[in-house]
């Protein structure tokens, strides 16, 4: 078993209470799909990080399902893994374990008869693959657990198969959420039935923060499918945790691009097709910015929208990034001032404009809304990068609107930072009605 499992077994056995989840939502699909049902199985009894992932999933998936035309349910009752119990479900999931021995035959029959399955992280963990060879050696193709990285980290993933429906609309590399990562005894590249969808990109090495549990080179598959079955496996599913206080430090659903893969994958497994890349659902602005049009402002790195926290309409409201939802809190108007600069008004209260706190000229000064008074710290120059993307330069400081540390998480307050040409400072404008 991984070294960190051994270190934490006592805490797991005494029963750890999960931390409160960060509220994250999925990007809605815009194409109509036939409704379908997903049933997720879990135990929720081993390792605080896995228990917390179960809780995270039980909060995120129902919202994502409602936005994408299906329903999602979770259960700890593995007896429902039977022909009669699964009759109404298009897809089943294993969140944190494989089924007990009594239900293995039913699961194998279900997949061999055309059923669809998605598994996460520890659902593939075993030190004895021959205990259920069909599952570990044939279906997953991974064999035995070999190594794990520690501590949990977010990594750049290389999309190995950009033609698979689950990777539709994704770029050549994506940013994962934080996870611990597993490697396996079998080389999936040597299995003709396995289609590796994503792997650790070489730019990510070393992976892990503990020098004794790092990957420094090599090939490590992260998402894959077995072409003989309707299945997807994801290596992620381990939230970052403060084990001393039993509180979450990261969410598995913090990466918009990873979430897009999940939704695309579920729609493919259910035979419902895949939605177009979202958000936004309309083409980005490529011509001049209209001073009377309202726009959503989408960060290139995270895929999330510039947002007035809690839909605030008063001075001092933090400007953050958040999953795009088309509310007034995420719509902005670019009203010219002078010299190519604009004030950026929020639709919730058009008297409120984007403002650098305390008229600061320092890096990492936070962005808020404030009643417009003509200050240079309230004026921004939109600089076109082509293809509908812009960076925004503050008139007072000469610095750019920036997502700190290129975060992909919800609720991260935006700042100004020395302009550097990165995707964290690049935004596309999408006109709203």
From TrEMBL:
Residues 1-31 form the signal peptide. The keyword Signal applies. Keywords: Signal. PROSITE patterns: RICIN_B_LECTIN (PS50231). It comes from the Bacteria. Residues 291-430 form the Ricin B lectin domain. This is Ricin B lectin domain-containing protein.
